[in-house]
Amino acid sequence: MTTFTPSSTQAAAIREIREWFEGRTREQQVFRLFGYAGSGKSTVLKFALDELGLAPHRSAKDGKCTPGVVTATFTGKAALVLTRKGTPARTIHSLIYSVIDATEEEIEAAAKRIREAELDARRLNGFDRTTAEAAIEAMRQALSAMKHPRFALNPRSDAADARLIVLDEVSMVGEEMARDLMSFGKPILVLGDPGQLPPIKGEGAFTRDAPDVMLTEIHRQAAESAIIRLATMARMGEPIGFGIYDAHVAKLRKGDITPEQALRGGQLICGLNATRLQINNAMRAAAGLGGSWLPTGAAEKIVCLKNQNDLGLINGMFVTLEDIVDEGSLYFSAVVTDEDGRRVGPPDRDGRPGRLRIYNGHFVDHLDYDAKRHDRDWKEKRLLTEATFGWAITAHKAQGSQWENVIVWDDGLGRSDLDRRRWLYTAITRAERGLVLLA
Questions:
Q1: How far apart (Å, rounded) are the C-alpha atoms in residues 44 and 215?
Q2: Beta strand 392-394 with 431-438: parallel, antiparallel or unpaired?
Q3: What letter would DSSP give residue 42?
Q4: What pLDDT score does 216 carry?
């Protein structure tokens, strides 16, 4: 049996967590344990929970529950990774929210009000018409929002009974979600990496403030790791020169490799959705699979875009499709297998997983992009599995995941220097062993 002894820095962090939990949670609800890639945050957490004698929370059965630790992450894939490593985890959304869908009647009533307002506006002129049109546009945006799931705080959440809430990968947790988490009044231990991407809108609510503990010593990978070296350079805003950094890490020019070589290079990560569509098309063509939006079979890389907890499908999970049939509507059907080789689908008459119906819009967008497609298809789409080609994914989609080998396609994403640093750092740190940075 292998034993592991925490370093002096890690041991000090464990003591800090214990002292906070045992004596300061009333005046300090949130404890921030931060560290850059490879610094051992998960190791510190494991030892701290062991010392505190805290086991995973068990939900109420027959009116009873066993209070303990509830672990949650922002992305479903991050929760899946933790669960596979032996730490039961779920998404923050599934922990503290209930999903509320607007009814078809509510949506039709809102659409009717817009049509009536448009008729009224035609009879107006000048400033009055301009004001009316602005109000109509706001109504249209509200209608579009109604077609997406809304989340209401669930007062019966396990968070209400847990002794401790642990949040991992918290850089993408925004202000509103942070307030909702804190509303349960429970101690919250957050693990974060301030170098990673924040929410798409705004800043990370937990990572904007100074940490209680900041781990900087690299443990997960050797201190001389080329991946860590390049990640640190990206985080610091230092230029990364072209060249070979070790046997598995390099920075090359985009023209130095072909799509055929990229197929063998690992998971490709980019910044922009437009780039993602273009690269997916190029890599499918290189694999002999292009020419149609319809996936061709098990050789395709397919990534889920929506959690379906009843089926075990996770946003960010890769799946295999076989026996694909275009149903000639807004979906195709297929036999689906998840990353663990488990058949996924609604039960058939014999109780075995049946075929899945998969929305085709995300696939069609690769050949015929339509910004209004998903708003138009909202009614049917909510009943279907959502997925797309996953040869290339964005760094936002990749957060919470890691692959042995990664290709980072640098398309210049970043509204500011800080945004760019975070994007590049996040993309680079998805690699475990091999990394090719293309610029």
A1: 10
A2: unpaired
A3: H
A4: 85
Estimate to the nearest angstrom the gap between the alpha carbon of 317 and the chain centroid: 10
Q: Tens digit of pLDDT for each residue in 48-76?
A: 999 999 999 987 665 577 889 999 999 88
| pLDDT (mean) for 321-340 | 94
Tell me what pLDDT residue 100 has: 73
Q: Residue 173 is which amino acid?
A: V
d(CA 280, CA 303): 12
How many residues are there in the chain?
439
| 3-class SS string, 84-153 | HCCCCCEEHHHHHEEEECCCHHHHHHHHHHHHHHHHHHCCCCHHHHHHHHHHHHHHHHHHHHHCCCEEEE
Structure tokens at 123: 């009879």
What percent of the chain stands above pLDDT 70?
Answer: 97
Question: 59 phi and psi, to 5 degrees?
Answer: -65, 160
Contact 266, 427 (CB under 8 A): no
Q: Cα–Cα distance between 420 and 413 in angstroms, integer?
A: 6
For 389, counting Cβ atoms within 10 Å of its Cβ (0-12 exposed, 13-18 middle, 19+ buried), the class is buried
pLDDT at 2: 47
Burial class (CB in 10 A: 0-12, 13-18, 19+), 32: buried
What is d(CA 317, CA 307) in angstroms, rounded to the nearest whole number?
A: 9
pTM of the model: 0.83
DSSP 255: G
What is the distance between the alpha carbons of residues 311 and 346, in angstroms, rounded to a whole number? 7
What confidence tens digit (pLDDT) does each residue in 166-200 have? 999 899 899 999 999 999 999 999 999 999 988 87
Res. 99: pLDDT tops 80: no
Q: Express each pLDDT in 210-256 by its tens digit.
A: 999 999 887 654 567 899 999 999 999 999 999 999 999 999 999 99
Cα dist from 233 to 218, 237, 240, 297, 403, whole Å: 15, 6, 7, 40, 21
pLDDT(25) > 90: yes
Least Cα distance to 314 among 247, 401, 186, 254 occurs for: 401
Q: Using DSSP, state whether 41 is helix, strand or coil.
A: helix
Burial of 46 (0-12, 13-18, 19+ CB in 10 A): middle
